[in-house]
Amino acid sequence: MRRVWDILTPPSIANLQRLCHTVGMSLESIINGALLSVMPTLYRAGTYHTATRIEQPNGDVTESFTDTPVKIQRDVCSERMRQAAGYTERDVALIILAYGGVPTTDDEATDADGARWKIASVDRSADTSHWICRGTPA
């Protein structure tokens, strides 16, 4: 018999959603439940880069970033993301577990594979456990 974590290797949100539908549970109930303790690699370590923009007296704007460790999952864009202005085929969905901050479109995120993404849109999950962002290559 195959184990749940064998089915989801490599883990993806699409596989998790199919599993949830099969067993009749919502994605949020599984994420907030025991599944994260069984599959700690679902959300891998990443970095959230909070932007600070400072306007100089001469009119120039400087930007610096404050880094925060986060748990992040990269996935394919939703249909809604694909229909948004500015979407390109290189864009991705970034699911970031709640980390105490609020993402903005000035910020960037680095996923577990080391790819850095500019945040293009931000939505909060219904249960407030995570942020769903569209990332464009930074």
Explained architecture:
This protein has 138 residues and is of the alpha+beta class. The chain has five helices and six strands. Strands 1-2-3-6-5-4 form a six-stranded antiparallel β-barrel. The termini are far apart.
End-to-end Cα distance, whole Å, is: 43 Å
Oligomerization: single chain
Taking all Cα atoms into account, the compactness measure Rg is: 17 Å
- Biggest beta-sheet profile: 6 strands, antiparallel, barrel
Mean pLDDT over the full residue set: 81
Helix content: 10-25%
The dominant shape is globular
Number of helices: 5
**Reading side by side through the largest sheet, how are the strands ordered?**
1-2-3-6-5-4
The unreliable regions are none
Strand content: 35-45%
N-to-C order of helices and strands: HHHHEEHEEEE
TL;DR of this structure?
The chain has 138 residues and is of the alpha+beta class. It has helices at residues 4-7, 13-23, 27-31, 35-38, 79-83, and strands at 44-55, 61-75, 92-97, 108-110, 116-124, 130-137.
Q: What features would you highlight for this structure?
A:
138 residues; alpha+beta; 6-stranded antiparallel barrel; 5 helices; globular
Break the fold down into its secondary structure elements and pairings.
Layout: H1 4-7, H2 13-23, H3 27-31, H4 35-38, E1 44-55, E2 61-75, H5 79-83, E3 92-97, E4 108-110, E5 116-124, E6 130-137
Antiparallel strand pairs: 1-2, 1-4, 2-3, 3-6, 4-5, 5-6
